[in-house]
Amino acid sequence: MATHRTKALTATAAAGAALLLGAALAQPAAAVELPRSAVAYFATGSNLTGTQYAVDTADTGCHNLPAAARSAVDFTAANIQVFFNADCATGLPGKTGSGYYALGSLHWADFPYPAVSYRVTG
Question: What residue segments make up the domains of the chain, in order of their start?
């Protein structure tokens, strides 16, 4: 009988541990808050190579880049709209339209066209 009780106690302890672990892992995403000043920058080369230009994620105005960027990283809580025309004008390079690139929080990307301006959004 002692062996049966030991097995039952071990099984109960394992189930309780699994329940606690599941509860800890099931926390809502809002429980982890990233600082808005984490890392975000544009790079003149693909794969985040070349000259880097830092992004101030607290500044939501339109910004023209000092040089065209081929990639960027956004490891912050903000999102970044990337434009292929100056002054945050939508459209493909040199054309009007609705095109722009949405670089989401916690992402990096190589752009299909050189990025020349951007705006930080929520």
Answer: 39-121
